[in-house]
Amino acid sequence: MTNTSNSRILGALALALSLSTALPGMAEAKEVLTIDLVNEPATLDPHKQWNPDSYYVYRNIFDNLVTRDDAGEIMPQIATEWDQISDTEVVFTIRDDVMFHDGEKLTPEDVVFTVKRITDPAFASPQLGQFDKIVEAEVMEGNKVKLTTDGPYPALLAQLVKLSIVPEHVVTEVGDDAFNANPVGSGPYKFASWNRGVDVKLERNDEYWGEKGVFESAVFRGVPDASTRLANLQAGTADLVVTLNADLAQQLEASGRGKVMTVNTERVAYFAMNSALEPLDNMELRKAIGYAIDREGIVEGLLGGYPKVVDELVSPAHFGWVDGVEGFSYDPDQAKEIISGLGEDAKQTMKLATSPVFDQRVVQAIQQMLTDVGLSVEIETTDMATWLKDQQTTPDQAPMLTFSRWSCACQDADGIMYPLLHSSSAWSRFNDGEIDKLLDDARSELDVEKRQQLYADLHDLVIDKVAILPLYQAAIIYGGAEALEWQPTSNESLFLNRMGWAE
């Protein structure tokens, strides 16, 4: 793996060189970049909640062990190279020129502390299921860290793309809550302030070891209404806005005040049915729901054709994608026929959990489709923080129905299928030994072809047992100021130091 790592280092240097020649001077007329999110962050601690509005912000405060370039290739970051010394052991060489924002040096001990923190069951990170294969982290001679997994783990590097390194001396001194309120990282931007309910401000880290940002500061605002986000962009009070729908994108294009920036992401929209609760423990009812949802109609009629319908719980951006998988076709007559034979099971009112961060047109369309085939569905809307809390619980306490979209930012099937389907996960609404075994086997199989076949088997089994309903590969639509220079990526990262400004 060393040779591969060296080539990645050369690639990273080439990327840095190209950026260094392209970006300086581009932002002379733009000191503050204003970004409108859907909600304010739920957390700024990178080991706590995993949701877009939080990730957009804290990803700029912290460096990760490894990262991805704009093409999606895994590249060095805090780790300069890595060697797979056995099926279960990887040794990482840690940069020796990185300083945290408080002036203290980042050390291998901080990396080990970070790993042990996020894998500690008592810490209860929502990301635990993506890192719990790591059973040991230890400092080695030569500024190195060795990670040991409880078996072969081919998705390790893909998951480590998300592992933000935190300073042991700060976290242990102030505690988790205070760290969340005033996070200290080593990234290209430093935390400045969090005016709850209004905005989060970051300031450029002029001592950053890597490519520095061109903007002196950035302000992230929570603006739940998409039309308001668009209006802010067109008025010039926002420079980048997230999560526009197709109608607003058309308005933006027609207005000539800003530009549409879009990419098909690794985020998969899905419909979860809590099979631990009646009447959804009845597989026939879940089948009826599968036939009742018109995914093509949602994509083409509501979402402007930007997303891509998928029949598996991954996107083409993931390892584990299999061409040719066929899920449920839209067949409302078949749904009605099934429901007519279910008797009382089909008459119970089921609550559909949602939050304003999700496109409510899609939620309402699904509710109507289910109503049209004879089911009773009631939408229950909560703020995002409450929604997240309600989702991360035991199946008997979780919502009956959920529309959501999932991204692991790792581009590996393990990062989405394991948390949403394995019975050990707080996110899962399904408990099946056969699916659990395939998930466990797939996350420990080092042979690429064998691993791909395991996911092919999983996709078929998920359909057969109606464990969850994949809907579409989400496309994210951003609105940007004309002068903003930025390439959106499938892992939905807003790297401020990869943005420029050209008047």
TrEMBL record:
GO terms for biological process: peptide transport. Residues 73-425 form the Solute-binding protein family domain. Keywords: Signal. GO terms for cellular component: ATP-binding cassette (ABC) transporter complex; outer membrane-bounded periplasmic space. The keyword Nucleotide-binding does not apply. The keyword Signal applies. It is found in: Periplasm. One of its GO terms (molecular function) is peptide transmembrane transporter activity. Its main location: periplasm. Pfam families: SBP_bac_5. Residues 1-27 form the signal peptide. Belongs to the bacterial solute-binding protein 5 family. This is Oligopeptide ABC transporter substrate-binding protein. It comes from Nitratireductor basaltis. The lineage of its organism: Bacteria, Pseudomonadati, Pseudomonadota, Alphaproteobacteria, Hyphomicrobiales.
